[in-house]
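Need the bound structure for PBG, inputs here:
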Amino acid sequence: MTMTPRSHDSQAGFPVVRPRRLRRTATVRRMVREHRLSVDQLILPMFAIAGAGREEPIDAMPGHSRMSADVVAIRAARAFEAGVPAVLLFGVTEHKDEFGSSSCDPRGEVQDAIAAIKLLVPEMVVITDVCLCEYTSHGHCGILRDGHVDNDLSLEAIARAALSHADAGADIVAPSDMMDGRVGAIRHTLDAHGHEDVAILSYAAKYASAFYGPFREAAGSTPSFGDRRGYQMDPANGREALREVGLDIGEGADMVMVKPAVAYLDVISAVRATTTLPIAAYHVSGEFSMIKAAAERGWLDERTAALEILTAITRAGADLVITYYAEDAAAWLKETE
Ligand code: PBG
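Answer from helper R.:
Posting the output first, comments after.
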């Protein structure tokens, strides 16, 4: 649980009560620590491109690159070796059309990356982002009709993309498009093709956030017109997140996500109070890059700031944290063991 609203522990106050007694040494602090970030909770996002032996650094995300399937697999193996149990894969493609058709190409960037990881590190959990925005010429997360993203028209394409990821060997598919009804559509399609065991992690409460900036550079998925506010959630809304989560669980989500994480800790906490399902929180590209940028200028201590934020996300109630810091955090946590 998070925090108790009222303390019944003692009627006494200062000078009888002195909370500092339990902060005096590193050992006692270790004993009374309420939350421990564990490497088991970390998920590393990666960007897959076509070809072999390719690695293109992403300017706005120091330390991260777009990589061909073979390089993705090597990096995933290195992360797994460091203790990170899972990756979240994104495809970056040059094959774009109005309908995002290449999203379900059996030899697409993501599909090849899944296969390469499964070959090299079969135990690693492979999660795939399911969306059309990286594959559509207009950069929107669904299919357009009369200049608007048509919800129901998009569902079939999204479910087909998820199916192709499952066919390629994905363990978990994670729809991030925010169309209504997509969790149910994906579940139905997966089950109809013998993929009952593939789980769904739904981006249940995904906000129309300014913090996705560096990602859109990385994935080449900036909308060519308009924005995503017609399908992603309004940052001003908290209660609506609970409705989204409830709907996705009703449609068969196995895990739910809140995204971004840092500006939405209250949402994570509220979702925690209403569901027993595992909750993932996405520490997104902008949240990563702003720590990096401040650290580069010497304005923040990167390691302390990153671990503080990742721990805060778990304190708010997240079981899993998707973060570009996954590999670094794994190493830092090992050092402090
Ligand atoms: C695709 C998608 C986005 C992110 C994850 N999946 C971008 C967006 O919705 O514009 C953002 C991840 C990040 O910023 O790290 N729909």
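Comments: The chain has a mean pLDDT of 96. The radius of gyration is 21 Å.
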